[in-house]
Structure formats: C-alpha cells, structure tokens
Amino acid sequence: MSAATERTQWCFADQLGPHFVDDDVERVLLVEATANFRRRTYHRRKAHLILSALRHRAAAEPHRVRLVRAESYSAALTEFAPSPGRPLLVRDPTSFAARRFVRRLAAGEVDGVPKGAVDVLPERGFVATPQEFARWADSRGGRRLLMEDFYRGQRRRHGLLLEPDGLPAGGSWNFDADNRRPPPAGVTRLADAEELAEPWWPEEDEIDAEVRRDLERLVTTGVRFVGEDGPRRFAVTREEAVAALDRFVTGRLAQFGPYEDAMLAEDRWLAHSLLSVPLNLGLLDPLEVVREAEAAYRGGRAPLASVEGFIRQVVGWRDYIWHMYWYAGESYRDRNALDMTQPLPAWFEELDAGREVQARCLSDVLAGVREEGWTHHIPRLMVLSNWAAQRGYDPARVTDWFHTRFVDGYEWVMTANVIGMAMHADGGLLATKPYVAGGAYIDRMSDYCGGCRYNPKVRLGEDACPFTAGYWAYLARNAPALRDNPRMSRALAGLGNRHDLDDVVSQEAARGSLAP
Q: Whole-model pTM?
C-alpha cells in the first residue's frame, strides 16, 4: 500500500495501548504539544510520564509510529498534512475541549486541515459503551443514578464474579464491610504484618533521561512545573504495564481489599495496585485487568472480598466516573451548590506544607503528592478533599489542582470525583452525602494522630484537631443546604448538642484557609 493510501491514526497520550488501533491501520501518529505545559502548571512527574510514554511508544515500533514534536496539535497536524485523499483517523478523546477540537478538524475549521481530512472514530478504553450507559440511565425511570446499580449491571453483562446460576459469587454483590480494616497495630509498613510483595518498579532508560533534559529546557523557556523529580514509579509501556499487573495480581491483590482504606505515614503504597497510571494512559484494557483479578479468585490465589473490591474500582467506579463526566455535561464542573469560593492557599497550590501545616496527616499526604504526584484514594478523599471541603475551597479550582498535580489525573477523572464526590458541589447528583469527616475517622484508619500535636477528640483550643473542628464548622455553615438530605439528619441533629459551636465556628473562621 502506498503512503498516499495507507491508513494513519492519531493517538492521544491516553490512547497508547494496542486496543486503540485496529489491525488495518498501517501508521500511528503521536504528538508532543508543548502548549499543553504552557497553559497549566503540571507536576513535573506528570509531565515526565506523559512524554516518556509517548516516546517509548514511538521507540517500540519505529517503522509504524511517527512522533511529531510541535508547539500545538494544530501545528503538528499541519505538518502531517492530512487530506480527503489521505484522511487521518482519530478516536474520540477524553475531554470536552479535545472533542470540540477533533470535530473542528473533521469539519475543516482548522487552518491547514481541509474538510474531510479527519475521520473521528468511537472512543475505547472503558468497559461500557455510551449506548449501554444511556440505556441503563434511561431505564431508571426517573430514579436517581447509583453507581452500585451500574456496577451490578456491568458484572452481569460481562459475567464477572458470577456463579453458573447468574448469582454473585459468595452470595453478595458487595464486600465493602470486609474491606475497611484499619492498619495493623504497631507496624509502620503493611509488609511488616502481612505477606506482601514489593510493588513493581520500572527501570529507567535513556528515554527517561532525555525527557528530563527536555523538561529542564522547557523551564528555561518559561514553562513552570511544581513537585519534585525522582525515579519513575509507573509503567509507561505495554510491556511494563503487563508486568505491573502481574505483580499486583500475584503478590499484592490478596491484601488489597482488607486495607484499601487504611493509611500509614511510612507506607504510601500499602497493597494498592499502582495501575491507575497505565490504565489512564490506555496501556491496559480494563476488562483485561479485571479478568486477571477474577482468575486469581477462581484459582484460589486471592480472597473474594479483595477481588470484588478491586473489580468494583475498575469496572464500577472508574467506568461510572467516565460516563458521568459526559452525562452531566460540560457545565457540571462549574456547579457550586454549597457556595464554596475560598481560593487555594499558596502552600496547597505549591505542594509545600513547610512549617505552616502542623496537622501530621495533611502535611504527610501533601508531601506525598509533592514527592510522587500520587497518593491512594483515601488520602485524596478523606485528607486532601476533606480539608478542601471543610475550608470551602472553590470546587473548580480544586478540580484543576487534582488534574494537574496527580500523575493519573485527567479532566474526566477529576471532574466528577471532585465536584460530585469530594466537594458535594453538585448538590447530590453523584454521591448521596458529603464525604466530610472529623479527626476520629483519620485516627481510626491511620497512624497519623499518635504523632500529631493535635488531639482528634478536641475541637476547641490550642490542641483542637483542624479536621474535627473543621467538620463542625462545615456542618454549621452548610446546614441550610443539607437539611433535606436524609443521610445528614443525624449529623445535623448533633449541632444542637454542641454548646461550644459558636466558639468553634469563630475559631475556624479565624484560622481561615491557612493551616494551623
């Protein structure tokens, strides 16, 4: 086939796995667009991962894959020069802005790219199709959308963890009650108490070294990053991703479930999979991932509760968040039902708690983001987001912060997770109640409070835990908006029993958005 007639597909940096490109596509185009790093301030590790993944993909198939480095996507595509006789294929990307761009390309509305020169293909990389989600949502008949119901439908549709009669394995769809253990007492690392393999770690190569040099050059041109550099922690090639999946399933999955909500100051990884990055780069297909986990259960290598909890994260929550991003619409990220308008303080933006933050949990988790660009889901939800919600930070700003500061952060991931679940800014479309809690939760699920200058049982005075005091101030501030939520009735009723509530509210107002 001649160069003029061969089929070429442009893949975005989160479409790097083989399942995004059909066998009849002869050429693959990848684009490094420097403008992406000029528009927003990203974590240095996130920038490194994206560039490393693109360059490794090109190096793996040098005769098939062409990598174009340009200031913008438009400049790169003009250089590639697609035409109606030589159309460029592209799968629907994962954000509203990117989809508008590829549709403008297809319509001939971008200079240098004539109409008919770009064909847009359906998206891939998720378990349910948009049509399947729409049928499920429409079938609710006006009832609220619940992730649990969507998740059960996913398992039925794909035969996951089902008995021959179609009932769920173990007699239950949900084993959350078995997956909420606090960390084992008296240990600093989970491996001290449980049989647990070390996470899979990649070996860096010359491509990674080249990326570091190029990032430094970008800095000299005015591009700004936050966070620290360090060894690459996550898979950026298909081969690495498969190795990371195998290590998790064979050596870590069994302990994942019981401790998935636990936190240890000296163990950032616990038994987590570290697969969110390769999944969100498109290096692993989600069904492939959960089939491997199910096989471990069927083969007696992992307990059902752990496997169910992991499958729930991948085909339940991850897929649900993806579809809710599109279902709720582009204006969803601007929702602010609780009227939260406080700006993010500089130490939060810069990932630098320094001496300002004396709450041990917040200081340590923020350090983890600074050093790794990653924490697992409970520090994200019950420390970082809990803090932001209690202080009334602007939800859109918090969404952007998670998007740019986390190596696995993308707009579709963070919009519904932050606006809906973490900040409750959507008024309850996604989650049935706000995910805010006092210091007692952190004390129960971590080892942070024992070494902290604050007391999680105290809400007023010098020893007052900012999470405990912040929780009651949050309830007092938002009581009118939450009064009709049945899941908040007990918490709101407790406001009347707090004789010191006015003093707590005044104390937290004085502390403001600055960490005590």
A: 0.96
